[in-house]
Structures are given as C-alpha cells and as structure tokens.
C-alpha cells in the first residue's frame, strides 16, 4: 500500500509538472504566435548523446544566454554570452528530456525548446 501511494504521488507530480510547464516558461512579455516564423536558436543533434550544439540563426548583434532545466524544472546549466554556435558537453547530464530557454542579456525570453539526452 505504501509503495502504491509513493508511485501514484510521483505520477501525479510528473503530470502536474507537464501541465504547468507552459505557464512556468512564459516571460512577462508575450511573443506573437505566428506560423512560419523561423526559429532564433537551433539545437542539434536531437536526441544527443555526448554533446549538443546551440546555433543562433539570427543574431542581430544581441547578447544571449541559454538556461537549461531538467524535466522536473531544476536548473542544470546556465550558458552566458552565447556565440553564434555553442557546444555543450553532456557528460554531467543524465538521460532524459531537457528544456532550454534562450534569453536576452536583460532576461527577456526569446524562445524555448527541448532536447533529449540518450546515453
């Protein structure tokens, strides 16, 4: 009975994290939802095993940072002063789904995405 309660609590927690993720990742400034708009950042390869690249598609001379969260919402990485193409070593990452946010230097959310680590 105790194991069943723990398992159902864990499932409920994961479900709530999944449902609340869009609200959690929004900034105070909303971005227009337009189809056909090209992405600002591209993450590849996806899924990744040992390293992942973040490539800025259109820089406009802005300084960006990328914040990486695990699936439970815990910050696992913070990359500052992103260059046109940045490589991230995944040695300290576990297998699973990660969410990243591309932010301007002042903290405004530009774009978010996800990538999968498979080891």
Automatic annotation (TrEMBL):
Residues 44-110 form the Secretion system C-terminal sorting domain. The keyword ATP-binding does not apply. It comes from the Bacteria. Residues 1-25 form the signal peptide. The keyword Signal applies. InterPro entries: Secre_tail. Pfam families: Por_Secre_tail (PF18962). Keywords: Signal. Coiled coil: none annotated. This is Por secretion system C-terminal sorting domain-containing protein. It comes from Chitinophaga niabensis.
């Amino acid at each position: 009975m105790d194991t069943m309660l723990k398992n159902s609590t864990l499932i409920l927690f994961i479900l709530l994290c999944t449902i609340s993720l869009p609200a959690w990742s929004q900034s105070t400034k909303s971005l227009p939802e337009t189809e056909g708009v090209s992405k600002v950042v591209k993450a590849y390869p996806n899924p990744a095993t040992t390293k992942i690249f973040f490539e800025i598609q259109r820089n406009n001379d802005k300084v960006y940072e990328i914040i990486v969260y695990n699936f439970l919402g815990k910050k696992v990485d913070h990359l500052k002063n992103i260059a046109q193409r940045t490589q991230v070593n995944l040695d300290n990452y576990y297998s699973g789904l990660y969410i990243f946010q591309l932010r301007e230097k002042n903290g405004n959310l530009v774009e978010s995405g996800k990538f999968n680590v498979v080891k």
